Amino acid sequence: MNPAQLADEVRAALTAAVADGALSVAVPDEITIDRPRSREHGDYATPVALQLAKQAGVPPRTIAQALAERLRAAPGVAAVEIAGPGFVNIRLETAAIGALARDVVIAGEKYGSASTLSGIAVNLEFVSANPTGPLHLGHARWAAVGDALGRVMRAQGAAVTNEYYFNDAGVQIDRFAMSLLAAARNQPVPEDGYGGAYIAEIAQRVVQDHPEAAGLPDDEALRTFRTEGVQLMFDEIKSTLHTFRTDFDVYFHEDSLHSSGAVTTAVNKLKDSGSLYEKDGAWWLRSTEYGDDKDRVVIKSDGNPAYIAGDLAYFLDKRSRGFSLCIYMLGADHHGYIARLKAAAAAFGDDPDTVEVLIGQMVNLVRGGEPVRMSKRAGTVVTLDDLVDALGVDAARYALIRYSVDTTLDLDIDVWTRQTNDNPVFYVQYAHARLASLERHAADLHIELGDDYDPALLDTAQEAELLALLAGYPQVVAAAAELREPHRVARYLEDLASGYHKFYDAVRILPMGDEPATDATVARLWLCRATRQVLANGLALLGVTAPERM
RNA sequence: GCGCUCGUAGCUCAGCUGGAUAGAGCAGGGGACUUCUAAUCCCCGGGUCGCAGGUUCGAAUCCUGCCGGGCGCACCA
Question: Which of A183, A309, A453, A527 is 20–30 Å from A420 (CA)?
Answer without folding.
Answer: A527
